[in-house]
Amino acid sequence: MDPMALILQIAVIILAPLAVGLLRGVDRKLTARMQNRRGPPIVQPFYDMVKLLSKSPILINNLQVTFAGAALLFQAAALALFVAGGDLLIAFFVSGAGSIFLVLGAFSVRSPYSYLGGQRELLAILAYEPVLFLAVLSLGMRSSFLVSELRGGLLEDLPLVLLAMVPVMVILLEKSPYDVPAAHQELISGPYIEYSGPYLAIMEGARWFQLAFVLGVITLFVWNDNTIVSLLGKAAIVLLVLFVTIVIDNITARLTRERMVMFMLTVGIALVAVNLIYLTIFPEGLI
Amino acid sequence: MGLVQGARKRSPWILHFDTGSCNGCDLEVWALLTPRYDVERFGAVNKANPKHADILLITGPVTRKCEDRLRNLYEQTSGPKLVVACGDCASTGAPFHNCYNVCGGVDKVIPVDVYVPGCAARPEALIDGLVLALSLWEKRMEEEG
Ligand code: SF4
Fold first, then answer.
1. Which of A13, A84, A177, A274 has its CA 20 to 30 A from that of B18?
2. Cα–Cα distance, B21 to B59 (Å, whole number)
3. Which residue puts its alpha carbon closest to atom 2 of ligand 1?
4. CATH code at B85?
5. Chain A residue closest to B80 (CA)?
6. Peptide linkage before B80 cis (omega within 30 of 0)
7. Inter-chain touch A37–B41, beta carbons under 8 Å
């Protein structure tokens, strides 16, 4: 591989999570504006991150930080695979392993809230992973499983799959109605509750990498032969999905964990299935 | 160093704990989160979790039942941390002074950095107290080098 491409890929791997941090700031600002508040500056997540890293570490046991580190490593590896144009399915499974380490970290301490958070995180994984998996599968079946070989026309062929990604993002961004694992008023911050200072920063970093990967999957729907148009389209689709999740967050209240799982395993999967069925009947696509 | 200090000042995460207040001060603390006062514009978030908190907002006189819990929460908060006593009760024990079931102000149990007077402490005063606490932060960091 030529060195320019390699440098570019490394830059993307470093910059993508930072972009996610910025998006989370935009998210907080937009949410505040929707609630008629001023809201924090959009670089707030970075202030939070630097502050967390500078706090004095309190560790409950070594296992906890091991799992936090593993979660970060796996999510970063998933993103790296994705950016390097590797196999989408493998990247998906690596990222899934990263989320399991989040749960293991929650189970590694003896706090009942952390346990509850961990169990709910497992349910959340049960809810969004199948849909995300099917989305990845349909992308791969329609085009290619290698990110580097994926080409255009996916948005026209798979609009319902993109729609199914919206509730996935709602769960991943911990937005109502499905902010079940970290339910603020009942579980405080669920699986993250026993992490403090720099260790919390590691977990937050893992989340940024994970979101970067999943948003990356969303960008795959858009493609144009012109690189600049392609990039603009990808940015637009990410911002659109994010905006929809923020609106959903602000107009709904939290539902129970059962309803989250039920919704995702019925409606979420059905959306993907319907899309795939009509693609089989009309291979040219409907639009 | 400047970066860390700047980030600290802009991201004070809050733990609010009621040690036996009449709930007057609590309502005012909660009012801080409403669109009218919106402390989130300073980056402050009510985390409700000592492990994530930087600033402890304590309301009410410390009852004997709450004494251990308050100390426990303080010890679980990772440093550097600041404590703001919100309202007359938290500052001195006020009307509950010398009650058989009350230790007195928050400073009888844990060190307090800022006292916000008022019964109940007005949200504006609480924001002032918070900002004062943030400036203490700078001073404390300078002292520690
Ligand atoms: S200071 Fe006043 S309002 Fe606040 S807890 Fe005490 S009695 Fe209640």
1. A177
2. 6
3. B119
4. 3.40.50.12280
5. A55
6. yes
7. yes
ipTM for the predicted complex: 0.87
- pTM of this structure: 0.90
Distance between Cα B98 and ligand 1 center (Å): 16
Q: Tokens at residue A173, please? A: 């961004």
CB–CB of B7 and A46 under 8 A? yes
For residue B78, what are the domain limits?
Answer: 13-137
What is the number of CB-based contacts under 8 A between chain A and chain B?
A: 78
Q: What is the pLDDT of residue A215?
A: 92
Q: How far is the CA of A226 from the centre of ligand 1 (A)?
A: 65
Residue type, B75: E
Query: What does residue B56 show for φ and ψ, rounded to 5 degrees?
Result: -100, 120
User: Tokens 């440093």 — which residue?
Assistant: B79
The three-class DSSP label of residue B102 is strand
Q: Is residue B142 part of a domain?
A: no
Distance CA B82, CA A154 (A): 53
Show pLDDT as tens, one digit a residue, over chain A (287 residues).
Answer: 678 888 888 888 888 889 999 999 999 999 999 988 888 999 999 999 998 998 888 888 888 889 999 999 999 999 999 988 888 899 999 999 999 999 998 898 888 888 888 888 899 899 999 999 999 988 888 877 787 777 777 777 788 888 999 999 998 888 888 877 776 667 777 788 888 889 999 999 999 999 999 999 898 888 877 888 888 888 898 999 999 999 998 888 888 888 888 888 999 999 999 988 888 888 776 55
Q: Please name the member of B42, B48, B80 whose beta carbon is closest to the beta carbon of A188.
A: B48
How many structural domains is chain B composed of? 1
d(CA A168, CA A180): 13
For residue A149, the SS3 value is helix
Tell me whether residue B5 is in a domain. no
The span from the CA of A267 to the CA of A127, in Å, is: 11
User: Would you say residue B53 lies in a domain?
Assistant: yes
Strand ranges of the sheet holding B114-116, from the earlier edge strand across to the other edge: B45-46, B13-18, B55-59, B82-86, B114-116
Ligand 1 within 6 A of CB of B120: yes
